[in-house]
Amino acid sequence: MSAAPTRRRSLPGDPAPAEAIARAIRVDQAGEYGARRIYEGQLAVMRPGPARAAVEHMAAQEKKHLEAFDRILVERRVRPTALGPLWHAAGYALGAATALLGEKAAMACTVAVEEVIDEHYARQAAALPKSEDALKTTIETFRAEEIDHRDLGLAHGAAEAPAYALLTGAIKAGSRLAIWLAERI
Ligand SMILES: [Fe+2]
Ligand SMILES: [Fe+2]
Questions:
Q1: How far is the CA of 181 from the centre of ligand 1 (A)?
Q2: Is the pLDDT score of 3 beyond 50?
Q3: Would you list the DSSP string of the chain?
Q4: Which tens digits make up the pLDDT trace of 111-144?
Q5: Ligand 2 is a single-atom ion; what residues have CB below 5 A from it?
Q6: Rounded to two decimals, what is the model's pTM?
């Protein structure tokens, strides 16, 4: 008989301890919050038209992603990132700044962020143990939508943005740093 029946023990072949799962949920909730703020920043600047409609579509999906991770965070009693105020400000600033550079730069921002998130979600899903199948399905569903966002960005001329390589390189580096921080703080 187990002395602690309410506490799930690791099983052989189960590589992810509880803290690794908590980190994954923490960084994903932070990332989806950042995504929502990026699009809020862009929508504050963008004028009506096809590019804005695309951003509105993506923002609606990001809202669902965030709601899901907000729920998971509470259900699993995971501490949220302490850097919420930073994502709040930095996400919005990134969105507004890229949209001010133009619609194509706004789309380049999406392409850069989503490429990093695609890699991030793929790595996470692959590392999750069998016992986390529900979480894995959520991550894979969202990952597919993030890839759609990247494609939508490219379809709206992201690659024609001024200084595309420089812009996306900087945003990718920032996104990777944000992931690194949100996993830890
Ligand atoms: Fe998302
Ligand atoms: Fe997205």
A1: 18
A2: no
A3: --S-TTSPPP-TT----HHHHHHHHHHHHHHHHHHHHHHHHHHHHPPSSHHHHHHHHHHHHHHHHHHHHHHHHHHTTPPPPTTHHHHHHHHHHHHHHHHHH-HHHHHHHHHHHHHHHHHHHHHHHHHS-GGGHHHHHHHHHHHHHHHHHHHHHHHTTGGGSTTHHHHHHHHHHHHHHHHHHHHH-
A4: 999 999 999 999 999 999 888 999 999 999 999 9
A5: 146, 149
A6: 0.86
